[in-house]
């Protein structure tokens, strides 16, 4: 399994419009952060988690040519406003793309993008998507996937855990993506036990109403003990090189283009 971080930035992106801070003005490419999403590749298939406003730029930057399914966490703009770009994958792969989310997410997608689901033209120009209610546990492309809720302020949003079974040459492997979170309820903490890789929200140093701050995220990592943790949904508060050097050995800042394999 490969997890490719397509975007590691918070909702503003980094650089942020009109900001002259050292991180926004940095020439370090790791301080350039698209809005947050990941691509999970396994057995020749690719699952995209969220469609950011920069989906097109992300796919060009990291040469993504295949999306076989999309999972949504929630429908804040930084997670859904690139949905229309999926039509390029319809064309390249000559197939519909299944899209998964909870009932509220699917309702929002129908409301935000009514033209996609109306018969207004014969072929072409629109994404071809099928909408599916996500199950708490399901199999997809040889992966065992679990979806479960975490709290994003008062909004419940979905987190995802991907488990690849042991195969001849490789051991079992697990990765979880928990973005946009300020509280993880105990039953969801239980689903995050024994992870190889945890990708977790940490928007800035201090706590935030709807996101973990760095020290809250580190406390969660201490409790869950993943083999490796990466922090995402990062704002301009974090200079990659400076902050990364101060993190515990099993924790790192994610960055756009980071490929995590196991
Ligand atoms: Zn977000
Ligand atoms: Zn800035
Ligand atoms: Zn959000």
The tally of domains stands at: 1
> What fold name goes in the CATH topology slot?
Metallo-beta-lactamase, Chain A
| H-E order | EEEHEHHEHEEEEEHEHEHEE
| Total number of strands | 14
C-alpha end-to-end distance: 6 Å
User: What structural class results from the helix and strand content?
Assistant: alpha/beta
- What is the number of helices? 7
Strand content: 25-35%
Which characteristics define this entry?
19% helix, 7-stranded mixed sheet, 262 residues, alpha/beta, 29% strand, 7 helices, Metallo-beta-lactamase, Chain A, binds zinc ion
Describe this structure in words.
The protein is an alpha/beta fold and 262 residues long. It has one domain (2-259): Metallo-beta-lactamase, Chain A, CATH 3.60.15.10. 19% of the residues lie in helices and 29% in strands. It has helices at residues 55-61, 77-80, 87-93, 103-112, 186-191, 214-224, 240-244; strands at residues 2-7, 37-42, 45-49, 69-71, 97-101, 129-133, 137-140, 143-152, 155-164, 173-178, 197-201, 228-232, 251-253, 259-261. β12, α7 and β13 (251-253) form a beta-alpha-beta unit. 42% of the residues are buried. The model has no long low-confidence stretch (mean pLDDT 97). It binds zinc ion (3 copies). One zinc ion binds at residues 16, 19, 21, 23-24, 236. Residues 16, 19, 21, 23-24, 236 line the site of one zinc ion (ZN).
């Amino acid at each position: 399994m490969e997890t490719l971080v397509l975007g590691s930035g918070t909702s503003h992106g980094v650089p942020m419009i009109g900001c002259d801070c050292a991180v926004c003005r940095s020439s370090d490419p790791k301080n350039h952060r698209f809005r947050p999403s990941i691509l999970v590749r396994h057995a020749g298939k690719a699952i995209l988690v969220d469609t950011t406003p920069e989906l097109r730029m992300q796919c060009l930057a990291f040469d993504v040519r295949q999306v076989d399914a999309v999972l949504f966490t929630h429908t804040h703009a930084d997670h859904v406003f690139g949905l229309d770009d999926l039509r390029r994958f319809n064309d390249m792969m000559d197939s519909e793309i299944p899209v998964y989310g909870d009932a509220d997410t699917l309702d929002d997608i129908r409301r935000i993008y009514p033209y996609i689901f109306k018969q207004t033209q014969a072929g072409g120009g629109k994404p071809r998507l099928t909408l599916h209610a996500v199950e708490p546990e399901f199999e997809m492309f040889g992966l065992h996937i679990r979806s479960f809720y975490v709290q994003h302020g008062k909004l419940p949003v979905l987190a995802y855990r991907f488990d690849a079974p042991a195969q001849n040459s490789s051991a079992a492997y697990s990765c979880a993506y928990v973005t946009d979170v300020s509280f993880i309820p105990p039953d969801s903490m239980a689903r995050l036990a024994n992870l190889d890789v945890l990708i977790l929200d940490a928007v800035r140093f201090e706590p935030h109403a709807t996101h973990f701050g760095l020290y809250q995220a580190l406390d969660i990592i201490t409790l869950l003990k993943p083999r490796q943790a990466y922090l995402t949904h990062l704002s301009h508060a974090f200079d990659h090189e400076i902050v990364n050097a101060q993190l515990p050995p099993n924790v790192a800042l994610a960055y756009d283009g980071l490929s995590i394999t196991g």
